[in-house]
Design goal:
Layout: H1 7-14, E1 18-24, H2 30-45, E2 48-54, H3 65-73, E3 81-85, H4 95-105, H5 109-118, H6 125-128, E4 133-137, H7 142-152, E5 156-159, H8 164-172, H9 184-195, E6 200-203, H10 206-215, E7 220-223, E8 238-242, H11 247-264, E9 270-272, H12 275-282, H13 284-289, E10 294-296, H14 301-306, E11 308-313, H15 323-331, E12 335-337, E13 355-357, H16 361-372, H17 386-394, H18 397-419
Parallel strand pairs: 1-2, 1-4, 2-3, 4-5, 5-6, 6-7, 8-9, 8-11, 9-10, 11-12, 12-13
Helix pairs in contact: 2-18, 4-5, 8-9, 11-16, 15-17
Keywords: Transferase
Organism: Methylovirgula ligni
GO molecular function: glycosyltransferase activity
């Protein structure tokens, strides 16, 4: 077996290189954790990282309040220089935006996201500085990434972050839209058309890798599990759920509150994350009944994991790998989970000794009561738990850095030849 390349030789390959990360201007979500991990990896390899955040809401450009709020909320993004762009207010009157807005009213989220990015100007500084590699996140950011690739003649990678048309179709199941509702096939066609501009497609989980390899067989594909910063080992006495405000999380939590909690008895649960506002809007009666369980957004997520004795993963639907599941793995505490919580990892969670799989509400409630009645297993002198070992094998920064470097280094070498 070939030995891993040394850190010294990797540093020589990446030294002096400018890597541009293009990504949506999001924070406090799983995707943001991936952006941070990418920047960490490239800087650890010796490259200089430039971040370009694209606002996904029309009418908020570089000097807007949205830009200031985003930059203030993402101070931990480890980039050497940072830029923000978005579609200016004046572009709202354009015929192209009107057409995209009409599609959006019918539930075609892809059309709106693509047009918002297309109407966003890239900062002039990014035309002047030499860029050696563009690492783009999400298909709808491709319009700007491809524009800059044409200027610099450098490789363009696209991190797909799941097959988004499936996510859009899921969101449309119960969302209000004009009729006729946008079709999955229409949104998928837009997604694939933008993806074709990339030189290499990177996928974060086995499900999306298999799907896109079949849909775009002519493209080069790579499976790279995301690096997720480890959470502290759980040493507390709380049973927690961690969830950000996205629709699949809402569906899982709605099921948990309506079906599991009435069967779980008086076991105290703490629900951490900004999912509270989505539940309040979409399920006000449930929110009112269980208001005391919600902690809301916290700037100290690590502290929440450190106080955990067990973590619940009531996942009922969704696509792509779950960042909160990876965080839960890293904490080392016992987990109660449904099988979909482990989607896209290519593993059988039934083999993890500190995981209780519960596929229906009675089983989930019984597992919670079981955990609450006994002292949880800790990572101690007897060694780390199965979940912590799985995290260390698949999702550490070191594993991500090595896999990413093996993919990118040959692209940089070929780019050097073409640019000289």
């Amino acid at each position: 077996m070939m030995a891993r390349q040394t850190d010294v030789s990797r540093a020589a390959e990446f030294a002096g290189k400018n890597v541009l990360l293009v990504h949506p201007a999001w924070h406090s979500c799983g995707s943001y954790n991936v952006f941070v991990a990418q920047a960490d990896a490239y800087r650890a390899l010796g490259a200089r990282v430039i971040s370009l955040a694209i606002n996904t809401f029309p009418g908020f450009a570089a000097e807007s309040g949205a830009a200031k709020s985003y930059l203030a909320a993402t101070q931990d993004l480890p980039a050497d220089s940072r830029f923000f762009t978005g579609m200016p207010p004046g572009a709202i009157a354009s015929p192209e935006f009107f057409q995209a807005a009409n599609a959006w009213l019918h539930g075609d989220y892809a059309a709106m996201l693509i047009e918002t990015a297309r109407q966003s100007a890239h900062p002039a500084e990014l035309s002047a500085v030499k860029i050696d590699l563009i690492h783009c996140n999400h298909f709808f950011c491709i319009p700007i990434a491809a524009r800059l690739r044409d200027i610099h003649g450098c490789p363009l990678l696209l991190d797909t972050h799941d097959l988004q048309a499936r996510q859009f179709a899921l969101r449309n199941r119960n969302a209000w839209t004009l009729r006729p509702k946008a079709k999955y096939e229409t949104m998928l066609a837009s997604e694939l058309a933008n993806m074709r501009a990339a030189d290499v497609l990177i996928h974060l989980n086995t499900e999306e890798a298999d799907a896109f390899s079949e849909l775009l067989p002519e493209k080069r594909h790579a499976l790279i599990f995301p690096s997720v910063r480890p959470m502290p080992l759980g040493r507390g006495d709380e049973i927690i759920i961690v969830a950000s405000a996205n629709y699949p999380n809402f569906l899982g939590l709605k099921w948990f509150l309506s079906e599991v909690m009435p069967r779980a008895g008086a076991v105290p649960i703490r629900i951490v994350g900004n999912i509270n506002e989505m539940v309040r809007r979409r399920a006000p009666l449930l929110y009112s009944r269980y208001r005391s369980l919600f902690v809301g957004f916290t700037g100290d997520l690590a502290g929440a994991y450190a106080r955990a004795a067990a973590i619940l993963l009531p996942t009922t639907t969704g696509y792509g790998i779950s960042i909160k599941t990876i965080e839960a793995l890293s904490s080392g505490v016992p987990l109660v989970a449904t099988t979909p919580a482990f989607r896209g990892m290519g593993i059988d969670p039934a083999n993890l000794k500190n995981v209780i799989l519960a596929e229906d509400a009675p089983a989930f409630a019984a597992a919670i009561r079981q955990l609450a009645a006994k002292t949880p297993r800790r990572d101690d002198a007897s060694g780390p738990s199965d979940t912590r070992l799985l995290y260390e094998k698949l999702f550490t920064a070191a594993a991500y850095k090595e896999t990413l470097a093996a993919l990118v280094a040959p692209l940089l070498a070929r780019s050097d030849v073409l640019q000289t």
